[in-house]
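Hi team,

As requested, here is the filled-out complex form for the flavin-adenine dinucleotide run. I kept the field names the same as last time so the parser does not choke. Let me know if anything looks off before we queue the next batch.

— J.
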Amino acid sequence: MGDNLSKHVKSALIVGGGIGGPAAAIRLAERGVAVDLVDIEENWGVAGTGVTLSSLTCRALCDLGFADELMEKGKLHDGLTMCDPVGNVVAEHDTPRLYSPDVPGEGGVMRPVLHDMMARRMEELGVKVRTGTTVTALDQDDLAVTATFTDGSTGTYDLVIGADGMFSKVREMVMPDAPAPVYTGQVCWRAQMPLPPHWTRAKMFMGPVKVGFTPYAHDRMYMFLLENVTDKPFYEPDELLPKLKALLAPFGGELAEIRDAMNEDTPILARPLEAILLDRPWNVGRVLLIGDAAHATTPHLASGAGMAVEDAIVLVDELDKAETFEGAMESFMARRLPRGKLVVGNSLKLGELEQAGAGMDQIGPLMGQSLAAIAQPY
Ligand SMILES: Cc1cc2nc3c(=O)[nH]c(=O)nc-3n(C[C@H](O)[C@H](O)[C@H](O)COP(=O)(O)OP(=O)(O)OC[C@H]3O[C@@H](n4cnc5c(N)ncnc54)[C@H](O)[C@@H]3O)c2cc1C
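And here is what came back:
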């Protein structure tokens, strides 16, 4: 590997402290880049549910240095049990240990727990974080970008990274003609509950809807369910519990017991799924979009978070290898756009098959092919 990073970037501003932003901050600060990070939320990182760590997401976070903490504070395991609607096992899928033979290949973690891990690492590395703050303008020439912040202050940087999520304002600023996210026809329901002691891996139940469970701590798991809804809905908070129980009504066995134990205290979220893929360079000069700002996917391959982390890792890799900043952006795109197309494209196809009522004979092969592809080196 080359060592050109410091030739191209000595200072960086990161807009957005979700998952991709902190990953980029950590990777750059580890290499001596002076990093500022702003997030529009005052109380950033407090909210959130479980994140499933696919093999892609799990490896990316481990590559970033979080293997031990994920094993301690999340729950890593080695695969997925597929069941019919009443809980009969129809298949077992083993997940390869992509990071190391000592670290299980997939798992789950609570988003605030992941946020704490990343925030602490940024603090150790001297990343300057400002919350409740964002950028109002970005002006650049060939060598630098001057950012104006909401508090009226300004700063000049060699690189600005827009990691401000699916509805990115940085994207609007630098690519006003970029497409907007599109509703995909499904709503993702998530609920948290105790982990049955005998469940050692993820579980999925294939019925009229798809229901999955991800352990995210040693005694907790979250459920996800994908509902097909033609027009993008909005559900009031008091509708959530009865509606989720109705969606789970066709299931029997253990899943019925879990459904019946759900009550007003069960944390439940319902989120219409939207997606976007920028099929063009993700940078305009020295402003680069990463993560959901460039490629927001649906959760069918549980890999959106990992894709954001991979972006950060590949960015530093390519800045090191390339002789020019422009060359680094080109080689970054050559690695990331095909992977973005794979993950977003196949996730959307899986969602379309589910909405068309396809059976496992159609969904299974695409899922298998997608899981093999995301396990390839990035
Ligand atoms: C229902 C659902 C379930 C999912 N499940 C999984 C899963 O199981 N596994 C997985 O790997 N991925 C999953 N994903 C995808 C994953 O959550 C995203 O891909 C990932 O969070 C992207 O990270 P990011 O840093 O790009 O954006 P985000 O995590 O969205 O972070 C964006 C950050 O930018 C901040 N921000 C927003 N606007 C501004 C602004 N104007 N200025 C400054 N800051 C701003 C926000 O406060 C936030 O902190 C799921 C997504 C959805 C919708």
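Two things worth flagging: The radius of gyration is 21 Å. The chain is about 35% helix and 30% strand.

Thanks,
J.
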